[in-house]
Specification:
homodimer; about 180 residues; alpha+beta; two-stranded antiparallel ribbon; two-stranded antiparallel sheet; 6 helices; about 30% helix; about 15% strand; disordered C terminus
């Protein structure tokens, strides 16, 4: 990529990234998020599993709730207990977290293989690299990318936002848990 | 995901993510990286395009070089000028940066469509969402993920690290720039 057409490089407001980093760029917030992805829901669980101070945990959980990443609700099994559960917005952080982590693992010197391993539930095989996909599901490397002024997009792409789901393509999973276009 | 098998939640050292955040979690480092992806190579270009102070730019470029993200070399067209170019390690940050950005763009209130747009060079259509892929290229949602102890992986997955490239599958691009398994 690169070349003649460029993003407005001074402007971070339209970029979206600073918001994402604000949410998970802080050490403890990230550790709480990771624990949530691992199935922890209760204050006392976070407290004992993370080795975090009570006041810091309370503060970071509050921020994650304020940012719409976690929902704070009474536990259905015991209404006196509070549960923290990832929202859709929270779950949507997973590709970014995993991409950052895969990058770190690839380049950390002397890195040893993690245990347990993140797998897909169907085949129980380790997941592959987080990838950039084309509108039709092709995997793209950086050499395959470019920038185009919105006015010069092909007409079917003009109303489409980068990263938007494209119904009926390989770009997402349908309800059956299979890729929407699975035949090869 | 979630459930019985969990990562060691207190331990960040095996996670890989802190290293990634260290490299791009800082505002100016991130802006320099983004400018590099947009094709900027020279100190004076970064200086004028980013609106960054000379001493901060110098410091952040130095850090990115020290971290192996940028290479610092004489410009082949003018040996007195220095060029900063992304290394393979630097280019490998792109899925993570794009995933973070797509997340921010999806959830920033009142966000307006970016211009220019990141496209694939073949069809010039906006790229799709950054996705987690299975070993065989299926797109995975968070409900499709799980944790498995390394000892309990199927035998063909035992030696494989999460995020590793899987030759001969849809998981990467071959030299022709087409997905390795392209037929559908």
């Amino acid at each position: 990529m690169g070349g003649v057409v460029r993003e407005p490089l001074k402007d971070l407001s339209a970029c979206g990234l600073p918001e994402a980093l604000e949410v998970m760029g802080e050490r403890w917030s990230f550790m709480i998020l990771r624990a949530s992805f691992n199935g922890l829901h209760h204050f006392e669980e976070f407290l004992s599993e993370l080795g975090i101070a009570r006041n810091i945990l309370s503060n970071r959980l509050g921020r994650l709730v304020d940012n719409g990443i976690l929902d704070r609700e009474p536990d259905p099994d015991d209404r006196r207990r509070i549960e923290y559960r990832l929202t859709e917005k929270g779950f949507d952080l997973l590709p970014a977290m995993l991409a950052l982590r895969q990058w770190g693992q690839k380049y950390v010197e002397g890195f040893v293989a993690t245990d347990p391993v993140l797998v897909d539930q169907r085949d129980r095989m380790p997941v592959g690299p987080v990838c950039i996909l084309a509108h039709d599901g092709r995997v793209l490397a950086h050499e395959n990318l470019g920038m185009v002024a919105r006015a010069n997009l092909p007409s079917k792409g003009k109303d489409r936002q980068e990263g938007e789901l494209v119904p009926g393509t390989r770009g997402w999973i349908d309800d059956s848990g299979e890729a929407a276009v699975a035949a090869e």
